[in-house]
């Protein structure tokens, strides 16, 4: 652990390369290069967002609005994401950092305030789609929600619930619909299908309900699924089974998945790549192992140190993140994490961009400490 000794840039005479090794200057954040890892490294990009932003107006009085003082919550602020075919991309960060809003924008459940979203083999821009085109896009993208108890209609049998999207989109004959429902239930591990298809939700366990939700998403044969904390309400014993289904969908059916979760140990198990968000911005992104085993951003490092461990010897070293994530109203001058960062120095008031770090060529971090062109204060090691 080291602390930054306050000093001015001009006082720092020590060689920068001796202080910060393994750093290379990277391109600006708008041009994320394709990732290279495992078997997915050659896969085509399915979803790509550039400069994605979503701002919500804050409720204010009429007078304030009349004076032109409307303020906005910057839920998502200019992030880039790239997800390949058959890839599971994990999105993590503290509550309120904009994970769900990002998922909603990519699905076009929410209209982005700014930025572009490219989708499919042709990388068509879907950020402004409307009407029939938007309805067609919604066949290719599906969402799985957090709560399997709230997200299923209790009056429908499994068959009727899973078949409903086919009816809404007017897909197939009666027989084809039935076949697709069986196929989706089978893919999601509800086997033998005849034991589940005529049941009502109250006759199912939490894990089985979440598999039904997943089957409803899969029945349209989507290319992209946004899963928003899909296992957080499930018992640990059934969680592994549901996670396995996600992995199989990605590996065997080439479905791309945006997996949103607070649980970094779970993301390590399931994801190919991970993005860490803070106050609407992407702080660190890259191959899951690189980000979680060798975190470079002070925020990611703190998040990982805050993860509870079973080993009680490690409990003493557990870190609690000081300060709170406040709703971000308006823009921020400089680094979004600066008010809580122990390494803050004067350059942190300037905007940072994603920089390539580490040994892999798929690991990027938005922090001035990793910018070779920035003079940094001398780090003081403790202990
Ligand atoms: N419809 C809305 N109107 C106004 N503000 C909103 C709206 N939806 C989200 N926000 C704000 O946007 C920010 C990001 O919210 P979001 O739900 O995306 O966070 P999250 O990372 O998913 O949090 P959690 O982990 O708790 O689910 C929050 O400050 C939230 O209050
Ligand atoms: S840019 Fe500065 S404040 Fe932000 S994380 Fe890096 S050192 Fe901390
Ligand atoms: Mg959320």
Please characterize this protein's 3D structure.
The protein has 383 residues and is α/β, with parallel strands linked by helices. The protein has a single domain (2-381), classed as Rossmann fold (3-Layer(aba) Sandwich). It is built from 12 helices and 14 strands. Strands 7-8-9-4-10-11-13-12 form an 8-stranded mixed sheet, with helices on both faces. Strands 3-2-5-6 form a 4-stranded antiparallel sheet. Strands 1-14 form a two-stranded antiparallel sheet. Helix 5 packs across helix 6 (174-187).
The count of β-strands is 14
Helicity range:
25-40%
What is the H-and-E element order? Answer: EHEHEEHEEHEHHHEHEHEEHHHEEE
Counting helices, strands and paired strands, the structural category is alpha/beta
Gross morphology is: globular
- Backbone CA Rg: 23 Å
CATH topology: Rossmann fold
Q: Give the tally of structural domains.
A: 1
> What is the overall number of helices?
12
By CATH's scheme, which homologous superfamily applies? P-loop containing nucleotide triphosphate hydrolases
Q: Which architecture per CATH?
A: 3-Layer(aba) Sandwich
Largest sheet: 8 strands, mixed
* Average pLDDT level: 83
Strand content: 15-25%
CATH secondary-structure class: Alpha Beta
Please state how the strands of the largest beta sheet are arranged side by side: 7-8-9-4-10-11-13-12
Q: Which runs of at least 5 residues are low in confidence (pLDDT < 50)?
A: 1-36
Termini separation (Å)?
Answer: 8 Å
Hetero groups bound? Answer: adenosine-5'-triphosphate, iron/sulfur cluster, magnesium ion
């Amino acid at each position: 652990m080291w602390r930054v000794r306050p000093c001015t840039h001009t006082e720092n005479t020590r060689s920068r390369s001796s202080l910060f090794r393994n750093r290379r200057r990277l391109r600006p954040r708008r041009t994320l290069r394709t990732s290279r890892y495992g078997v997915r490294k050659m896969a085509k990009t399915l979803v790509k967002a550039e400069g994605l932003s979503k701002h919500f107006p804050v409720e204010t009085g009429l007078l304030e609005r009349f004076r032109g003082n409307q303020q906005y919550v910057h839920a998502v602020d200019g992030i880039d994401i790239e997800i390949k075919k058959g890839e599971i991309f994990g999105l993590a960060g503290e509550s309120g950092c904009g994970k769900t809003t990002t998922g909603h924008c990519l699905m076009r459940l929410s209209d982005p305030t700014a930025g572009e979203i490219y989708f499919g083999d042709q990388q068509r821009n879907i950020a402004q789609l409307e009407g029939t085109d938007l309805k067609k896009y919604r066949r290719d993208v599906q969402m799985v929600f957090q709560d399997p108890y709230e997200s299923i209609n209790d009056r429908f049998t499994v068959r009727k619930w899973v078949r409903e999207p086919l009816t809404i989109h007017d897909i197939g004959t009666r027989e084809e619909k039935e076949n697709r429902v069986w196929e989706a239930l089978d893919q999601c591990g509800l086997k033998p299908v005849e034991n589940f298809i005529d049941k009502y939700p109250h006759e199912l366990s939490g894990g089985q309900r979440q598999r039904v939700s997943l089957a409803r998403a899969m029945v349209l044969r989507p290319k992209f699924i946004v899963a928003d904390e899909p296992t957080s309400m499930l018992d640990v014993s059934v969680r592994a089974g549901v996670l396995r289904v996600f992995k199989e969908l990605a590996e065997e059916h080439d479905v791309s998945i945006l997996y949103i979760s607070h649980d970094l140990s779970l993301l390590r198990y399931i994801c190919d790549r991970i993005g860490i968000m803070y106050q609407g911005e992407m702080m660190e992104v890259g191959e899951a192992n690189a980000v979680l085993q060798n975190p470079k951003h002070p925020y990611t490092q703190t998040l990982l140190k805050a993860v509870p461990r079973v080993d009680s010897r490690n409990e003493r070293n557990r870190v609690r993140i000081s300060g709170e994530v406040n709703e971000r109203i308006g823009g921020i001058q400089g680094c979004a994490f600066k008010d809580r960062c122990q390494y803050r120095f004067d350059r942190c008031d300037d905007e940072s961009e994603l920089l390539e770090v580490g040994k892999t060529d798929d690991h990027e971090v938005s922090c001035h400490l990793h910018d070779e062109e920035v003079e940094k204060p001398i780090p003081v090691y403790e202990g």
